[in-house]
Amino acid sequence: MKSLFKVTLLATTMAVALNAPLASAADAAKPAAAASDSKANFKNDDQKSAYALGASLGSYMENSLKEQEKLGIKLDKDQLISGVQDAFADKSKLSDEEIQKTLQAFETRVKTAAQERMEKEATENETKGKKFRTDFAAEKGVKNTKSGLLYKVEKEGSGDAPKDSDTVVVNYKGTLIDGKEFDNSYTRGEPLSFRLDGVIPGWTEGLKHIKKGGKIKLVIPPGLAYGKAGVPGIPANSTLVFDVELLDIKPAPKEDAKADADKAKQEAGKKQ
């Protein structure tokens, strides 16, 4: 968060220094586009570069303010600009100590609001996910494993099913339960290759239910995916839906496969 403060002050400083108010991304892009059509607005490249930097930082700050509004924190943009102008004129209404304390309090507010929002979303996602999984489990051909994984084999494929130590090559599409797509190897035009035990548990378990050439739909509960933490593009406690096509299976070298088998036996012995 401290880095955000530094960027905030730098962004507003640059904007005011160039007599340009903070603008939205669209507004900031307009003068930049106009400047590209004519160099008459700038005496030299240094001026143009300075303006471009100010426009970029102003746009960044505008977006940051919008994100804070989502947390219920609405900063007064006029006061923000006024603070920068007063600092340039060496007429700040707050002492350095007051500024530091105020920013520390603001940091706490943002962290608290963000945590509350994340916890609320996590609870909502878990509730919606349970309903989605219940509805999907009622569909014809869907199977439910002890771990909570739901899957529907659309095409079994042929040969042997992959093992943990195997490298698999797949095409897939991943969505949230509302249909929002967060990943798609088809649109990227490049299949994904990975060792089967090197991905989320829902995939490691799920792909063992098909063989080379097979297709499967996986509905993965949070505990077998990214859990309460989530990742960029996937909120906390999200149930994930994957349509996966198993293109190829590449067995691990014999020594690796043997080592994995020995390790599995040892772990099984400890549980007994």
Automatic annotation (TrEMBL):
One Pfam family per UniProt: FKBP_N
Stretches of the chain forming a coiled coil according to its record: none
Entry EC number(s): 5.2.1.8
Residues in the signal sequence: 1-25
Top class in the EC scheme: isomerase
A Gene Ontology biological process term: protein folding
Reaction catalysis annotation: [protein]-peptidylproline (omega=180) = [protein]-peptidylproline (omega=0)
Role this protein plays: PPIases accelerate the folding of proteins. It catalyzes the cis-trans isomerization of proline imidic peptide bonds in oligopeptides.
PANTHER family referenced in this protein's UniProt entry, alphabetically: 39 KDA FK506-BINDING NUCLEAR PROTEIN, FKBP-TYPE PEPTIDYL-PROLYL CIS-TRANS ISOMERASE FKPA
Family: Belongs to the FKBP-type PPIase family.
Protein name as catalogued: Peptidyl-prolyl cis-trans isomerase
Organism expressing this protein natively: Jejubacter calystegiae
